[in-house]
Design brief:
The structure holds two protein chains of two kinds. By secondary structure, chain A is of the alpha/beta class. Chain A is built from six helices and ten strands. Chain A has a six-stranded mixed β-sheet. A four-stranded antiparallel β-sheet of chain A has the order 2-1-4-5, covered by helices on one side. In chain A, strand 9 and strand 10 form a beta hairpin. The longest helix of chain A has 17 residues. Chain A starts with 8 loop residues before the first strand and ends with a strand. In chain A, 48% of the residues are buried. Chain B is α+β, with helices and mostly antiparallel strands. Chain B has a six-stranded mixed barrel with strand order 3-4-8-5-7-6. In chain B, strands 2-9 form a two-stranded antiparallel sheet. The chains are: A alpha/beta, B alpha+beta.
């Protein structure tokens, strides 16, 4: 019986397939892993190996066909859609490969969005979004819209959005894929920093070998199976 | 929520402009087509509504003012003997030939009424000047080259168009010509014992329905209608029993259907084009209620902007159209009705779009 730690994120023997019937394709086959606060974990593997699918399970976006996903010790696989949405809102911050910033909002407003969804008042939203952007070196850029920012700045805004409401879990999908090497390293260092200094669980899926240098642990995925590697 | 919805909507200005223009065209189409129908309906009973009479007596089966028949003129004296009748008057009306000095001939609907029943209908005061007539200003160019006074010939009698009036253009193609009752009788060569309509003024305080019933009992061979009833009867006749009314009703209906389809389609397309944003919202934890709110606000914003633009185009177009279709009319309540229907359709289309928006798989945000 796996340990039920209230501060960890874990998957237990999860299976996931897309489609149904003869066209069904199994993407995760009995995955089990635990991620602890204060560590940055890297999921590597070729395209189609199941990295992003595992992130969608960890982020309560998809449900596994079988097995369990525990968010801070709480079983989440069978919760209703509304409860999973609330869980996602409060406990998880996302960083996407293509940033997924709202082009109509400036950097500060993008960062304030999860705060707004979490019910923070306007003044508090402004204060927190400014603080987190300043911490990530974007104070002078907070009034610019995404199209006026560089790729690295956009990803830092996305990172700020992911942590502004102080979630214990941050999930990042290919966060350096759209960045040049210098910005990629900066973002990787930031992810490691927020894991260590803010005691968050940071799970990063990516091909980028440079991320490996910043991760505390790394898992390699292949054909829906997972194996921890020595780092 | 409003700020996010609005800013996300107007961020892509081209897409927003296309949506608003589509809705504006739909709103214009619905309003203008309805204006044609309302104007036609009002024109069909304009004369009836304008004479100062509580009750109309006419031969059986007369459907409207424009297709009158003769009744006995002594009906007026007999009506005065009915309890509750304060006054009774006559209208002489009929189609006749109007001829200009150059020989140009035009069929017109000539009408004359006893002075005290004229109400707001243009009329020539009895005895002021014999053989004097009035025409609507929009018919003046056709009948007298726009110049009054003008000497003309009506049904072989010498006549004179002394002035023009406003708001009584015909919708039948035969212009109205107004004169005094006695001149109308002369021009139309109506025998003295005949008339076309008997108009009744009720004694103050008497219920019109009861007076109508007494008149019906007294004149069982004639139709007796209150003004409102005869007005409704005329509108119904023109709208339902004539091809012209049917065609206008059908085109108004089609205008509405096309308009509503455009509104719905434009709103729905806008919602669907924003699916990526909704997926991101859902991925970061927005509730279904929040996403629904954003979609609905965006739909209503499109509706409000489109309606405003569409309504702006209505007035100039109506002014332009009146040179050809004199009776087109867009009352103020029409704007309210079209607005409500447009907003409702926007909301309905957004409800359909919202289903897609809240069902959108948030996992798509992981795809580059």
């Amino acid at each position: 019986m796996p340990e039920c730690n209230p501060s960890t994120l874990s998957v237990e023997d999860v299976h996931l397939s897309y489609g149904s019937g003869p066209s069904s394709r199994s993407v995760l086959r009995g995955i089990a892993a635990t991620f602890a606060p204060g560590e940055m974990v890297l999921l590597t593997g070729p395209s189609g190996s199941g990295k992003t699918s595992l992130l969608t399970l960890l982020g309560c976006i998809l449900r596994p066909d079988s097995g369990e996903v525990r968010i801070l010790g709480e079983p989440a696989a069978r919760l209703s859609e509304d409860v999973r949405t609330r869980l996602r809102l409060r406990q998880i911050g996302f960083i996407f490969q293509s940033f997924r910033l709202f082009e109509s909002l400036n950097a500060r407003e993008n960062v304030a969005l999860p705060l707004r969804l979490n019910g923070f008042r306007r003044q508090e939203r402004l204060r927190r979004s400014e603080a987190v952007l300043s911490e990530l070196g974007l104070k002078s850029r907070m009034h610019l819209k995404p199209k006026e920012l560089s790729g690295g700045e956009k990803q830092r805004v996305a990172l700020a959005r992911a942590i502004a409401h102080d979630p214990p879990i941050v999930l990042a999908d290919e966060p350096t894929a759209s960045l040049d090497s210098e910005n990629g390293l900066k973002v990787a260092a930031l992810l490691r920093r927020i894991a260590i200094e803010q005691r968050r669980i940071v799970v990063v899926a990516g091909h980028d070998e440079r991320l490996g240098a910043y991760a505390h642990r790394r898992f390699h995925m292949l054909d829906g199976c997972i194996q921890e590697e020595n780092n | 929520m409003f700020a996010l919805a609005w800013r996300n909507l107007v961020h892509d200005r081209t897409r927003f402009a296309v949506t608003v223009l589509g809705i504006a065209f739909a709103v214009f189409l619905m309003t203008f087509q309805s204006g044609l129908l309302v104007g036609f309906t009002r024109a069909a009973s304009r004369v009836i509504d304008s004479y100062d009479a509580d009750m109309w007596i006419m031969p059986r089966g007369v459907p409207c003012f424009d297709f009158a028949a003769t009744l006995e003129e002594r009906t007026r004296e007999l009506a005065l003997g009915v309890d509750g009748v304060a006054d009774a008057g006559r209208i002489a009306t009929g189609y006749t030939v109007f001829q200009k000095p150059n020989g140009f001939r035009q069929t017109v609907l000539l009408q004359g009424v006893d002075d005290r029943f004229a109400g707001s209908v243009p009329h020539v005061i009895e005895g002021l000047r014999r053989e004097s007539t009035l025409i609507d200003e929009t018919d003046a160019m056709l009948l007298v080259w726009g110049k009054t006074p003008a000497d003309v010939e009506i049904n072989g009698h010498r006549g004179r168009v002394s002035n023009t009036a406003r708001g009584f253009a015909t919708f039948l193609g035969a212009p109205y010509v107004f004169t005094s009752y006695h001149d109308a009788v002369d021009f139309l060569r109506v025998p003295p014992e005949q008339s076309m309509f008997i108009l009744i003024k009720a004694r103050q305080g008497d219920a019109l329905e009861r007076l109508r019933d007494r008149l019906r009992a007294r004149f069982p061979n004639y139709d007796v209608w209150t003004r409102a009833e005869f007005s409704a009867r005329a509108r119904k006749y023109w709208l339902i029993q004539t091809g012209a009314g049917g065609a206008l009703s059908l085109s108004a209906l089609l205008g509405f259907v096309i308009g509503l389809v455009i509104v719905s389609q434009s709103t729905y397309a806008t919602t669907m084009e924003n699916l990526e944003e909704y997926a991101t919202l859902k991925a970061v934890g927005a509730s279904r209620g929040f996403v629904r709110g954003v979609v609905l606000i965006q739909a209503l914003c499109c509706g409000v902007c489109g309606s405003a633009l569409g309504f702006l185009a209505v007035d100039p177009m109506v002014v332009l159209a009146r040179s050809v279709v004199t009776w087109v009319l867009v009352p103020h309540w029409m704007f309210a009705v079209v607005s409500i229907i447009t907003f409702f359709m926007c909301a309905l289309a957004s409800v359909l779009g919202v289903r897609a928006a809240i069902r959108v798989e948030p996992g798509r945000v992981f795809r580059a």
